[in-house]
Amino acid sequence: MVRGKTQMRRIENATSRQVTFSKRRNGLLKKAFELSVLCDAEVALIIFSPRGKLYEFASSSMQETIARYQWHAQNNQINHKQTEQNMQYMKTEAANMMKKIDFLELTKRKMLGEGLGSCTIEELQQIEQQLEKSVSSIRARKSQVFKEQIDQLREKERSLAEENVRLSEMCGVQPWQGSNGKRGNVPYGESNPSSEVETELFIGPPPERRPRSFLPLN
């Protein structure tokens, strides 16, 4: 005969209820003992019968197990409160961050000349002053960049001049100093005496050229 499934509800018959309690209590105590032995677990089991009689099982000390349970329960409660506080703090910070982002977006639009219809005279003056400060900062930075580039070019020019002098000394050519006060190489025509050409000054009309005579061909 197949046993039917037990319905999970209170047994109305007192005798049947007591018999079922005794059987399942013994089975539960047996399972608790097996769990503590097989798995080396700390198990504590407390049962009160319908008449108020106490049945208990503890793999070690019942008092120590209960104290351990209370300590863990208290810590879990504290951790739960801290978690709730952290969540509330994060929600508040997120809301404040969203407000700051909205304010920055609105300020950016106003700086770009958008959404100025609702601005008062004081707000427009503040925007104008801020833009003037920004332009001044940009111009100052631009001047600084130009100055740095000029200094770099001057340093490069000085390095090239020194390299020019060094190469001139290696080649045996005397460096020359130009009109700007910088030294260079003397041109080849000026350094070679044989390249000088003497010229003579004539006053008066140029001499007449005699026509060439051609001999008749035989």
From TrEMBL:
Residues 176-218 are annotated as: Disordered. PANTHER family: SERUM RESPONSE FACTOR HOMOLOG. Keywords: Coiled coil, DNA-binding, Flowering, Nucleus, Transcription, Transcription regulation. InterPro entries: MADS-box/MEF2_TF (IPR050142), MEF2-like_N (IPR033896), TF_Kbox (IPR002487), TF_MADSbox (IPR002100), TF_MADSbox_sf (IPR036879). It comes from the Eukaryota. Residues 121-170 form a coiled coil. Transmembrane segments: none annotated. The keyword DNA-binding applies. One of its GO terms (biological process) is flower development. GO terms for molecular function: DNA-binding transcription factor activity; protein dimerization activity; RNA polymerase II transcription regulatory region sequence-specific DNA binding. It is found in: Nucleus. This is SRF-TF domain-containing protein/K-box domain-containing protein. SMART domains: MADS. Residues 1-61 form the MADS-box domain. Residues 87-177 form the K-box domain. GO terms for cellular component: nucleus.
